[in-house]
Amino acid sequence: MSTTTPPTPGTNGAHPVVKSAGRVVDFVDQRITASNWLKRNMRKVFPDHWSFLLGEIALYSFILLLLSGVFLTLWFKPSMAHVYYDGAYVPMRGILISEAYASTLDLSFEVRGGLLMRQVHHWSTLVFLAAMSVHMLRIFFTGAFRKPRELNWLIGVLLLVLGVANGFTGYSLPDDLLSGTGLRIIEGGVLAVPVVGTYLSYFIFGGEYPGEDIISRLYPIHILLVPGLILALVVAHLMMIWYQKHTHWGGAGKTDENVVGYPFFPIYVAKAGGFNFIVFGFIFLMAATIQVNPLWFWGPYDPSQVTAGTQPDWYVGFLDGALRVMPPWELDIFGYNLTLSVLIPALVLPGLILVPLALYPWLEQKVTGDTREHHVLDRPRNVPVRTGLGVAFIVFYILLWIAGGNDFFATVLNMPVNWISRFLQFSIILMPPLAFWITKRICLGLQRRDRDKVLHGRETGTIMVSPSGEFTERHAPLSVGEAYALTAHERREPIEPGPATDPNGIPNPAYKRERRQARLSRFYFGDVVQKPTREELEHTHHDGHGEITEGDTRDQSAAGDHIASGQQ
User: Fold this and answer.
1) Residue 235: CB partners within 8 Å, gap ≥ 6?
2) Sign of the CA dihedral running 51, 52, 53, 57
3) Which end of the chain offers a freer environment for a tag, N or C, measured as fewer CB atoms within 10 Å?
4) What does the alpha-carbon distance between residue 107 and residue 293 come to, in Å, rounded to a whole number?
5) Can you say whether the dihedral through the CA atoms of 360, 365, 371, 372 is positive or negative?
6) Where is the signal peptide (predicted)?
7) Angle at 322 between CA 318 and CA 323, to 5 degrees
């Protein structure tokens, strides 16, 4: 039995290159049957909104991070063995330094393009972590973490933690005075661990600090282990997005059952490819014009010295700030000294931040009782409590970040550093709750404004005088698109607990749990300004004091149909 391969369609009379490509495609398709998969997925729809580009910035900066890192590994020597420097940087000649520091100086002054690639690598790290942080905030404020995307949120948190860890390990590799000071802080945190801190420090550093092994141990972690984990999580993240479909903003024709946007190929591929080069160009521009980490100024690491007037990279600045403002608390338990002033900011605080952050999708699901799938994003104003919590966390983080540069601010403001530290200690306790309350009130005010717009239309500034002498302002109706955008969210009502007993008088065993959930639900949704019902909308238009003229109500009626269909 013999088979005949049919000619590749569309290649008759075509250019030889096209024919060759067609034969290759046909060869691959006959063996892995990829054409059906490609046809199905090349037209996959992606929504178009600027906020979705934040994740792409993180992805493209990570790609540049990997490429520049490969370049640097060709010349860097991860060794703490000491040599006398005789390179191109004259002020350092004849000084005994480690091979790691010497190879970094060679990269900066002798390797063609080495300094540029060092700068590109450093700026790529900063942009990667900044874009990922803002991307996570966008997901949080818009509720994009809700079912079925809880695991993707957890992947995002892990990516952020791994990015910070890898950034710090790379920051520590050059073995200059600044990076050595950072490692000394880490060693202090390790020593603060009760009972086993000393043993952990000896194990990590290969002996008494600074030891001879820390650079050679951090190097494979930095270039192999953590990047491999990040790459695997990025792939898993993209695969889940592809399978679950992308979220989109609410509006006309947009529901939890569809995605409105442009096809992956060719439109999205072309836009993403162009944006990739824009990100690359922007990072290269910063690397070429803005100096970062000039380690030849600091000199080689010496445990007897410490840098002054310098701060760590922004993504670990909050930990440094927590150490600086923590009161000098210590406990003596059974002869063991427990240094809370180091243990709490170095170990307890990161856990208190990361655990609730990772579990938040499930915590909110528990509070609201909402276990449905969501593909339409929330406007932050429509979930005031979640938005307030997010802003409170941002304020808390920024205050710790400022505390990491308290000496810098003391110098600039010409104030005692203790005054600044004391002010920050009180601010860290008082300002996050205040930021939560202010943000919640702002969100509620915006909700009331949206409700008034839907009911009465948009203010025009035109003042009308009635025959009785009454002055009123004429309102213009909203378009269907505007009305849909303002009413696309659901009506959210607090959960009510079930009865304490059933009709037979038997106590409800879950009543206490239901009451707790109801209290949390009232905290979450009790003050929400609900969007108008269709009856309210129709009543306003019929008895609206002549604000909207006849013939202008068709858009409002269409909006009323949408509101009615979206009520819970």
Assistant:
1) none
2) positive
3) N
4) 13
5) negative
6) none
7) 120
Is the pLDDT at 306 greater than 80? The verdict is no
Angle of CA points 230, 231, 236, to nearest 5°: 95
Average pLDDT over the chain, rounded to an integer: 85
Strand partners, 176: 300
The Cα–Cα gap between 401 and 396 comes to 9
Give CA–CA dist 141/133, Å, rounded.
12
Instruction: State how far the alpha carbon of 104 is from the alpha carbons of 173, 175, 181, 239, 303, in Å.
Output: 9, 9, 17, 38, 19
Q: What's the mean pLDDT in 377-397?
A: 95
Residue that the structure tokens 């818009």 belong to: 142
Q: Which domains does the chain have, with CATH numbers?
A: 45-245+261-295+306-378 (1.20.810.10), 450-564 (no CATH)
| Cα–Cα nearest to 540, from 473, 468, 481, 452 | 452
Round to whole Å and give the CA distance between 382 and 525: 10
Determine how β-strand 471-476 pairs with β-strand 458-465.
antiparallel
CA distance 126 to 133: 11
Write out the two tokens for 4.
């005949």
Q: Which residues contact 128 (CB under 8 A, 6 or more apart)?
A: 58, 61, 62, 65, 163
Structure tokens at 331: 């406990």
What residues contact 24, with CB distance under 8 A and at least 6 apart?
A: none
Q: Which of helix, strand or coil describes residue 461?
A: strand
Residue 418 burial class via C-beta count within 10 angstroms: exposed 0-12, middle 13-18, buried 19 and up = exposed
Over 50: is that where the pLDDT of 549 sits? no
At 422 the pLDDT is 93
Selected residue with higher pLDDT from 287 and 42: 287
Q: Please tell me the distance from the alpha carbon of residue 491 to that of residue 495, in angstroms, as a whole number.
A: 12
Report pLDDT for 252: 77
Phi, psi of 528 (to 5 degrees): -65, 135
Asked if 61 and 279 touch (Cβ cutoff 8 Å), the reply is yes
Are β-strands 330-333 and 82-84 bridged in parallel, bridged antiparallel, or unpaired?
unpaired
